[in-house]
Design brief:
The chain has 739 residues and is mainly beta. It folds into two domains: 421 residues, YVTN repeat-like/Quinoprotein amine dehydrogenase (Methylamine Dehydrogenase, Chain H), CATH 2.130.10.10; 136 residues, 7 Propeller (Methylamine Dehydrogenase, Chain H). The protein is 0% helix and 37% strand. The strands form 15 sheets. It has a five-stranded antiparallel beta sheet with strand order 1-10-9-8-7, with no helix packed on it. A five-stranded mixed beta sheet has the order 29-33-32-31-30, with no helix packed on it. β4 and β5 form a beta hairpin. It is globular. The protein starts with 23 loop residues before the first strand and ends with a strand.
Length: 739
């Protein structure tokens, strides 16, 4: 699961850290002004179509001095504040627009124990050369509004090691002093509450190409500790400073730990002991060994307190390899600590808890009772959920010793009695969505496909789908989803699955059956799929995750047999005419040609030529209920329309950029469906609606609701005018309605 969300490993070390740019006041949504060329923005209400988590919760932080206040961070889906009274999470950085999409990943967070309303976030999703630099956000009102400082270095919230940390720390001796650990640029320090930053020049760590750098920062009394992930295997990987100026290697570091990555640390102020987890890789994948150690900070004595050493054998003979990840201490009970295993696939990850400083441990998994009725997808198509995986975020409520939470690759579980567990995830939605269909009839107004949990049937928008993940087969990531234009009960889907890569439904997506057969290439490169208007023909295109394109295949017997279509452009997305079952279309992005088939997909020939090519963002969309009415949206070349089945196209002058386009129910009195797009009519990217065939547009989102990158897919509701569904890359399915 979630494999497609993993970032490429960093290969080049960054340059030395430099001072940050001038800070810019930023309200949660301060971006571009309303479009000059658009009509007055109508009032819209935006909400998540509830799924319940579905993304990697990389950190959770209870505030040490405010009961009921907590924060969570995710790798690509922003940060959240826990509202204890409402028992739900509030998203905090939905204001980032498409220009700042890279800032929706949160590398680290920090709170100030003395000033409870202060919150700091270090944001930046990728440390690769093609990504923008990171930033530090600071708030005086618990994330309701922000001031932003752009950094001259890159952060990596979705890189390897993203579950480590926290890498951001408020100095306990001076609330104006902050520390930030980076991956390629060492340790940074700010003495003005994050407004400006400079390299802590005396820090001894020397960055390498591994992309880990400073993995954690923690205060033990007035002494600060920094974990270092770029050790050569013999050098120290834990440093400390007592005065905030001079750093030194912590003496006596246990044998073997220098060859591992320090993942997380937590300080027990009641016993003055610092607990650290280690693994032989930064995680969340790739760990096969690890340990847990504690340091008596006053005496300088190290003790290994590893609950179970990795490398044993499970009951079925598998090797029980794993690392250690999260660690949290109980602020009310001395010597009470919880740690997590990570990447333990043979015997499933667990939490270990000790009440005697690590002399003995109990696995909380052994007595765990789960209730996932609120989020049924967490069964993953099985009879019951597993305890978790990618567990690197662990927290103990400082006001309730039996309130423990931990993050997984899909949710945040919580308990109030150390036995009964349930998702504590309301309001936190992190799905990366790539497919949307809004059926014209039936129980569900929405079907969605994501990179995380395949396809979902949204029987209600305000609750997690009652059927959970679509099964038979289960897909970890969806690549195609299509509905027959004149037979909406027929739906097909494709994706990455262990037991087949394609399936069909005859009841609108409620139940599914796998294709009887599939082309050999489908296992390694399942791509988009289309079904013609009456559901009698399927066209399946194939694209590997590395971008390699393959020949498309056709089936006229519901997936029982397949024939290669050599005239179809490799890797293109097939588009069915919604009214005429003999017509299919395809856009060749390499040559700028629109091809069409008039024989139900057997052969394709070029129609319009000389269209935009080379743009990475092309989408051909057919207007519902009409034959030959095609719209071509392009990121850099605007919007084009054909009313003759792709023989000719004309440029639409009302916008200069169109990332994605969809249709919904027409406005009262209108003779054309409502058109929705993510695009630009003037200077900025936003969500728009047109009720007059794209002659004019109104912006329907606002500066508080932008969600980073939203150019994948948009779909209007064919039954409710004004309602629109929007796929995001990390904030799930957003849907808007006029109010």
């Amino acid at each position: 699961m979630l494999a497609s969300r993993l970032s490429r490993r960093a290969v080049l070390a960054g340059t030395a850290a430099a001072a940050a740019l001038t800070a810019v006041p930023l309200l949660p949504g301060h971006a571009h002004a309303a479009e000059a060329g658009a009509k007055t923005t109508p009032s819209y209400r935006w909400r998540n179509a509830v799924i319940g988590g579905t993304g990697f919760v990389t950190g959770v932080l209870f505030h040490p001095s405010v009961r009921g206040l907590a924060y969570a961070r995710t790798d690509i889906g922003g940060a959240y504040r826990w509202d204890d009274r409402a028992a739900r999470w509030t998203p905090l950085i939905d204001h980032f627009d498409s220009d700042d999409w890279n800032l929706l990943g949160v590398e680290a967070m920090a709170v100030d124990a003395v000033h409870p309303d202060r919150l700091y976030l270090a944001v930046g999703t990728y440390a690769q050369s093609w990504a923008g630099n990171g930033a530090v956000l600071r708030s005086d009102d618990r994330g309701a509004s922000w001031t932003r400082t752009d950094l001259m270095v890159k952060l990596g919230a979705n890189e390897d090691g993203r579950g480590a940390g926290e890498r951001l720390l408020v100095d306990p001796r001076d609330s104006d002093t902050l520390w930030l650990g980076t991956r390629h640029d060492g340790l940074l320090k700010s003495t003005d509450r994050g407004a400006t930053w400079a390299a802590a020049g005396d820090f001894p760590g020397s960055p390498s190409a591994s992309g880990q750098g400073v993995t954690l920062l923690v205060a033990a009394g007035r002494t600060l500790y920094a974990g270092w992930g770029d050790s050569d295997g013999t050098s120290p990987n834990l440093y400390r400073t007592a005065d905030g100026s001079t750093w030194e290697a912590v003496p006596g570091q246990p044998a073997g730990t220098s060859a591992k990555v320090p993942i997380r640390a937590a300080y027990d102020c009641l016993t003055r002991e610092l607990y650290l987890t280690y693994a032989n890789a930064p995680g969340p994948n790739g760990q096969s060994d690890g340990s847990v150690h504690k340091l008596a900070t006053v005496r300088g004595k190290w003790t290994e307190v590893t609950p179970v050493k990795p490398g044993g054998t499970t009951s079925d003979g598998s090797s029980d390899t794993f690392g250690y990840g999260g660690v949290a201490v109980d602020a009310r009970r001395p010597g009470t600590v919880v740690v997590s295993t990570n990447n333990r696939w043979a015997d499933t990850d667990t939490l270990y808890r000790t009440t005697d400083g690590g002399r003995t441990w109990t696995s909380l998994k052994d007595a765990a009772v789960f209730d996932v009725s609120e989020t049924p997808f967490l069964n993953w198509g099985a009879d019951k959920p597993k305890f978790g995986w990618w567990i690197q975020a662990v927290g103990i409520d400082p006001y309730d010793s039996r309130h423990v939470v931990y993050g997984t690759g899909a949710t945040l579980y919580g308990t109030r009695d150390l036995k009964h567990w349930a998702p504590q995830i309301r309001g936190l939605e992190e799905t990366s969505v790539v497919q949307l269909v809004s059926p014209p009839v039936g129980e569900a107004h929405l079907l969605s496909g994501s990179r995380d949990i395949g396809v979902l049937y949204h029987d209600r928008l305000t609750a997690s789908p009652s059927r959970g993940m679509t099964t038979n087969p289960v897909f970890g990531s969806a690549t195609g989803l299509a509905q027959a234009g004149t037979k909406p009960a027929y739906v097909v889907r494709t994706g990455w699955g262990d037991n087949g890569n394609g399936a069909y439904s005859n009841d609108g997506g409620q139940t599914w059956a796998p294709f009887e057969a599939q082309p050999t290439i489908a296992k390694d490169a399942p791509g988009p799929i289309a079904t013609n208007a009456d559901g009698s023909v399927l066209l399946w295109s194939f694209v590997h995750w590395d971008g390699t394109k393959y020949a498309a295949h056709r089936s006229a017997d519901n997936g029982a047999t397949w024939t290669e279509i050599s005239s179809f452009p490799k890797g293109a997305t097939p588009v069915a005419d919604p009214a005429d079952p003999t017509l299919f279309y395809a856009y060749d992005t390499d040559t700028g040609k629109l091809l069409a088939s008039t024989d139900s997909g057997r052969t394709f020939t070029a129609r319009a030529t000389g269209l935009p090519s080379g743009d990475s963002q092309f989408k051909v969309v057919a207007a519902p209920g009409r034959s030959g009415d095609l719209w071509l949206s392009t990121k850099w070349n605007g919007l084009h329309r054909s009313t003759d089945g792709g023989a000719t196209f004309s440029k639409v002058d009302s916008c200069w950029a169109s990332y994605t386009l969809g249709f919904g129910k027409a406005a009262d009195g209108a003779d054309y469906p409502a058109i929705y797009q993510v695009g630009s009519t003037e200077t900025s990217t936003a969500v728009y609606r047109s009720d007059d065939g794209a002659k004019s547009w109104v912006r329907i989102n606002d500066d508080q609701h932008q969600w980073g990158y939203i150019g994948e897919v948009i779909a209007g509701d064919p039954r409710i005018h004004g309602r629109v569904y929007l796929a995001t890359n990390g904030r799930g399915v957003q849907y808007g309605e006029p109010v």
